[in-house]
Inverse folding.
């Protein structure tokens, strides 16, 4: 990935959504992530860039991957990490999100990484506190670092060092309606010039997404031959109200990525999944563990992307010395 | 653009690089006890390092060349600007037990070198580290001294407001060493 020659004016103290970022912002962040990849290959996997800073994970929804990834990213930058989980905190005693955050901030933290079941929670937080806020997933709205790491994976694997995705077709398949990963991906991919096709059953694919500039389809088999990248989403059972499809078996039959179905796609297609996997539902084990699968690479790249994110938001929050 | 004075033109830069390569070769010969490598600090030291490596006889001086980005190790970020660019460190070999020639274009405060040394130690345990710079312009803020210098301006009492820059192709249009008053960016801001 090419690094810009001169400093890029990165002004975002918070990372709340990819909708807010310009194409150049995204390119700069991902080019910065390229510089962080190497840190994880050293014998001492640590750099002093955020020494003395405090990063708090404030998670109101369960998470393994994202939280571990942010914690590790922060430690590799030499920041101190504090973990707050909703189940063991005062939120379960009725405290508001704003009060919780302001109390944590009063302890002198620099970055709050927030995940919440309500869309807009991170925006609300960013207005309530003075430190940086990184959205680690807000309801069905956005999960910007996941979107960024997905785009980073695509650019790295397909040799798009200039971070221009023109000419690439990305199919995002599954529960589009409830997916914050899909929204972040859509905004980021379209800004970098990719063609985005959303695929899913009509109940999980609101037609309003066409207004963002995506194409919509209910027929996975028809889309597969055109895709350079297939991003499979998990069915968000916890967010689905009522019944979205007759049975899991039927869903898997129509939209599950199986080996025979993968044979319809281009021979060098990339298969991605944000995790956690529901093996046998949206993706078969043979595909998830197969040679097209980028799933574990996404996790590895995610660390570099989150290091870059933490680094840039804290730099933007540090005023110039007079 | 503020006034700029050329301290060394293209031809002179070539001579300076030759001179530096010679000095390095002498030391490498003298301490032939370990394999050695040349590591340049981005974003001019790395160009200089590969030029130096090209100048040396590959039979006698088989050097591996790497480049080091020290942005994440700097303690003076606010002085280089609020928007530092993180580049890639590219040292595709182990530094353990190597004689390492650390290469930079201009030595001034010594803070870049301090950061580079810390970064090198995190990457491995070199046997010995030398510091080779094209220009020493004086103005040290840390107790750091170069082992090889091609153009020594440290006795000239240059003003800290004067910036000495080394221009090298392909990063710059043509090779040169220039001096110019530091741009007062901050005063232009509201």
């Amino acid at each position: 990935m090419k690094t810009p020659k001169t400093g890029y004016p990165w002004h975002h103290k918070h990372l709340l959504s990819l909708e807010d970022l310009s194409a150049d912002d995204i390119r700069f962040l991902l080019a910065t992530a390229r510089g962080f990849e190497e840190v994880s290959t050293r014998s001492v996997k640590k750099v002093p860039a955020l020494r003395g800073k405090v990063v708090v994970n404030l998670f109101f929804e369960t998470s393994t991957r994202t939280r571990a990834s942010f914690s590790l990213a922060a430690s590799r930058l030499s920041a101190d990490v504090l973990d707050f989980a909703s189940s063991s905190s005062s939120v379960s005693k009725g405290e508001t999100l704003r009060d919780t955050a302001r109390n944590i901030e009063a302890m002198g933290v620099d970055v709050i990484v927030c995940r919440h079941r309500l869309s807009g929670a991170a925006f609300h937080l960013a207005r309530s506190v003075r430190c940086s806020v990184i959205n680690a997933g807000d309801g069905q709205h956005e999960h910007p670092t996941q979107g960024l790491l997905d785009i980073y994976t695509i650019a790295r694997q397909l040799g798009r060092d200039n971070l221009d995705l023109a000419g690439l077709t990305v199919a995002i398949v599954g529960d589009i309606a409830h997916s914050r990963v899909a929204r972040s991906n859509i905004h980021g991919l379209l800004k970098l010039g990719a063609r985005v096709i959303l695929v899913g059953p009509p109940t999980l694919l609101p037609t309003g997404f066409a207004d963002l500039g995506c194409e919509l389809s209910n027929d996975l088999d028809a889309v597969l031959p055109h895709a350079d990248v297939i991003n499979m989403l998990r069915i968000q059972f916890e967010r689905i109200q009522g019944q979205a499809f007759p049975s899991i078996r039927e869903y898997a039959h129509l939209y599950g990525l199986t080996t025979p179905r993968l044979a319809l796609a281009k021979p060098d297609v990339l298969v991605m999944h944000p995790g956690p996997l529901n093996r046998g539902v949206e993706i078969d084990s043979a595909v998830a563990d197969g040679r097209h699968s980028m799933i574990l690479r996404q996790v590895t790249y995610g660390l570099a992307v989150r290091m870059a994110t933490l680094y840039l938001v804290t730099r933007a929050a540090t005023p110039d010395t007079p | 653009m503020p006034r700029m004075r050329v301290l060394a033109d293209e031809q002179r830069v070539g001579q300076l690089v030759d001179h530096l390569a010679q000095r390095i070769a002498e030391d490498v010969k003298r301490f032939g006890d370990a394999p050695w490598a040349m590591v340049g600090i981005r974003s001019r030291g790395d160009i200089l390092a590969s030029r130096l490596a090209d100048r040396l006889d590959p039979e006698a001086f088989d050097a591996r060349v790497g480049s080091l980005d020290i942005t994440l190790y700097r303690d003076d970020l606010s002085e280089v600007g609020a928007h530092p660019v993180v580049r890639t460190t590219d040292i595709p070999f182990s530094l353990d037990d190597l004689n390492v020639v650390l290469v930079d274009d201009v030595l001034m405060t010594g803070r870049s070198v301090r950061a580079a040394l810390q970064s090198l130690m995190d990457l491995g345990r070199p046997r010995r580290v030398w510091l080779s710079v094209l220009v020493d312009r004086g103005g040290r803020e840390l107790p750091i001294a170069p082992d090889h210098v091609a153009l020594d301006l440290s006795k000239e009492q240059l003003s800290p407001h004067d910036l000495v820059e080394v221009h090298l192709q392909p990063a710059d249009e043509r090779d040169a060493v220039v001096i110019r008053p530091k741009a007062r960016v901050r005063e232009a801001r509201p």
Chain A has a mean pLDDT of 92.
